[in-house]
Amino acid sequence: MNRLRRTMLFVPGNSPGMIRDAHIYGSDSIMFDLEDSVALGEKDAARHLVYQALKTIDYGTIEKVVRVNPLNTVYGQDDIEAMVQAKVNVIRLPKTETPQDILDTEEIITSIEKKADMEIGSTKMMAAIESALGVVNAYSIAISSNRLVGIALGAEDYTASLKTTRSLDGVELFFARSQIVVAARAAGIDAIDTVFSNLNDMETFEKEIRLIKQLGFDGKSVINPRQIDVVHKIFAPTEKEIEKALRILSAMKEAEEKGSGVVNLDGKMIDKPVLLRAQRMIEMAVASGMYYPEDNEEE
Amino acid sequence: MDFLKKGLAGTLESGDIFIEIEKSELPGIHIDLQSKVKNQYGKQILLVITETLKEYGIDNVNVKAIDQGSLDCTIRARVTTAIYRGSGKNDYRWE
Predict the structure, then answer these.
(1) What is the CATH number of the domain that holds A40?
(2) Which of A29, A167, A174, B60 is 20 to 30 A (C-alpha) from A147?
(3) What SS3 state is found at A109?
(4) Looking at residue A93, what is its pLDDT?
(5) Is residue A298 scored above 50 in pLDDT?
């Protein structure tokens, strides 16, 4: 099953209490932040803290991501070295503008993996796209490395680079969002949406989740545990959708057993995209705790 | 590692530990620990601080530690940060 990335919880890298508790809220990924949430004078402390936490705390099956400082800062290289050595799952590179940014980071990761006798390629990457140039280059960024598992939109810097501001309906983000989803899909990786920072406006937050789900995003970065369930609920399939998906998959199984290349359901031929969507739907249902494959097998 | 100045790290927030390390005129590691859970976890906190200092070959310092319910990994991280800050070095050991 593909890893779900519906929610990626931001955790400031210099907050021991939040680092300790980050895995209890049920997000699909945890993103420890060494970048914008850490003051310049505390970059060393945050790096040591996240390094020790990753080496010690058992976060279970939750994906561990670290947002490092960009390579053009004095912190970037040390961040990457510490996190790769601590066996983080994913290095998230901020402010990615060109494929070269990814290649430069990858080169460092590879040299550390070699030095530490780790499997080359075991550390994955994610690129945050946060500028007009990054959005224009989204596809070439998305295909620049086999380590990439996803690209994410960072809307604050992006809207500033567009010389505009963020609005409630997000009209200024429409192009970037669509471009990022299309680039991610063309490259076969995930698309993650930007954060929504007004915790008191849950109504707009829900609208935004519905919008990005419809656009095709796999999930969203979240800044507060309160936001996690809201995203998961909206991304969860309905019972009717699950039932239909199960019927499609059972028709597929039947066709396979008969050795038939054509799948029929209720007299209609089922196309490959529909099969893929049904599989994805069931994966999502399992992750949402709405469907238990083991129970079904017993029947 | 030698201490050129006081090395400070950590905060007084819940889950954290504040660490202050300075060179001692007397040999040995002298730790002044304040913690609400000193009775239950004091020994363990002192052990983690001492072990971390010894990893860096440090054996004559005064340490002030104010614990707010920190995990071992937090203690190690804060002591290490204070060591590097106090010694003015940045040849970090990630392994």
Answers:
(1) 3.20.20.60
(2) A174
(3) helix
(4) 96
(5) no
